[in-house]
UniProtKB/TrEMBL annotation:
It is a multi-pass membrane protein. It catalyses: L-cysteinyl-[protein] + hexadecanoyl-CoA = S-hexadecanoyl-L-cysteinyl-[protein] + CoA. Keywords: Acyltransferase, Membrane, Transferase, Transmembrane, Transmembrane helix. The keyword ATP-binding does not apply. This is Palmitoyltransferase. The lineage of its organism: Eukaryota, Metazoa, Spiralia, Lophotrochozoa, Platyhelminthes.
Amino acid sequence: DSSCRTAKQRLRRVLHWGPLIALFIIFYIAIYTSRLLLIWWPPLKSHSNLLHVAVYALEYYLVMSTYLKAMFWGPGFVPIGWRPIDLTDDQQLKSLLQWCSICKGYKAPRSHHCSRCGRCVTKMDHHCPWINACVGHRNHAQFTYFLLFAPLGCLHSAVIVSYCVYYTLFYPFYHQDSEFPTEDYAMMNLWEVLLAFFCLGLALGTTIAVGALFFVQLKSILRNRTGIEFWICDKADYRLECRHDSMTAHLSIDEAGQPPKFQYPYDLGRMRNFKQVINWSGRPVGNGLDDWPLAPDCGKYDLTKEQVLQKAHKASTAVLASVIRAYTGTRFPISFGLRTACCQPCSIWIEEKRLSLSPGQRLIVTRAHGEWLYGQLLLADEQSQSARDASASRGWFPKKCAMEHWIDSAAATAGDNGGNGLVKDKKVQ
C-alpha cells in the first residue's frame, strides 16, 4: 500500500531532502509571518484584526493538511501480480496490456512503473520529490488542493511582510518632525529586516513556482490526462501520421486532408473530467485499476493497446551498444566534457536513474537526449537476473561511453521482455 499508516512509515517518507526543504519553507514563512501578524495586528484589539488572524490561520491549516495528505496517502499502487479478470487468453493479454517484470504482473490501464517508488503506480502523473512520492490516483486531488492553497497563503504572507518592512523603512521620513506614536508598532532592526526579506523572497518564489504548477495540473484535470498521457497521445498522433506499422498503414486522411488523430478514451468533457478528481472529500473515485469511465465509442484497453504498439515501435528503433569507457554514475561527469555534465535530461533529477557502466558491457539503447543515452544492460547469466528485477540495469549514461551497433527489433523485444537479449552485431557504426 502506498499510504503511510504507522509513525515509522511517515517518518521515513519525511526524511528526504524534498519534504525537509518544503516543510522548512512552509514553517519559516508561516512562523515569521504569524509573529508579525500578532505584533502589528493584535487579535484582541479589534474584530478586524481577529478576522485577519483567523483567515491566515485557516490558510496555514489548509496548506499543511493538504500537503501531509498528499504525502502520506500516496498515489496508490497496482497489486503485485495483477491481471484483469475479464481477459483470460494470454496472447490477448500481451496484445492489450504491458507486462511489468519488476512487479510480476500486468500494468493496469493508466498505470506506469515508477523507478523511484519501485512499483506500478495507478494513474501516475509524475514523481514529485517535494512529497517524496508519486502523484497518482489516490492523492491527485489533495496535491491539487495544495497547489491552490500554497500560493494563496504565500501571497498573503508576502503582503503582510511587505507592509511591515515598508512601514519600518519609510516611517521616519513621513514623521521627521514628530515622535513615534505610542501605539503597539514594532520597528524592526537590521537583522529582522534581512529575515523579512528572506521570508518575502521565499513567499514570492513559492507563489510563482507553485502557482504555475497549479495551472498545469488544472489543464490536466480538465482534459483528464496525466503528464505521461499527454506524451503518449502525442506519440500516438505521430505514429498514425507516419504510418509506422501495419496496424496504421491502411488508414487514410480525412476529408480535410489531415492524418487521423488518436481518440483519447478518457475525455468525458470538462465538467465530468473535473469531477473525476475534484470533490469535497478529496478522496479518489473508483479503484484506479480498470473501472475508468469511457468516452463514447471507446474501448477499455484503447490506451494500453496504443502503448503496446508504441513499445514495439521503440524496440524496432533500438540499437545495441558496447561500453568502451567506464562511467561510475556520478552526478556531474565533468571528465566527459562540460556540455555532458551540464546538459542532462530533467528526468534524471526527478525519477530516472544514472547507469554505472564498465568497459565490455553491452546494452540496448532506446532513447537519446543531447549528450546522454538511455538504455538497459544485457544480463546473460541467471544470477544477474535479480539486478534486472531491481531496476538497477536501466538508466541514463553519457553518449561517449558506448559504441553503437545495429540490432533487429525481434532481438530488442526479446531482451525487453525478460530474455537475455544477447544478439550478434550486424554492423558497427
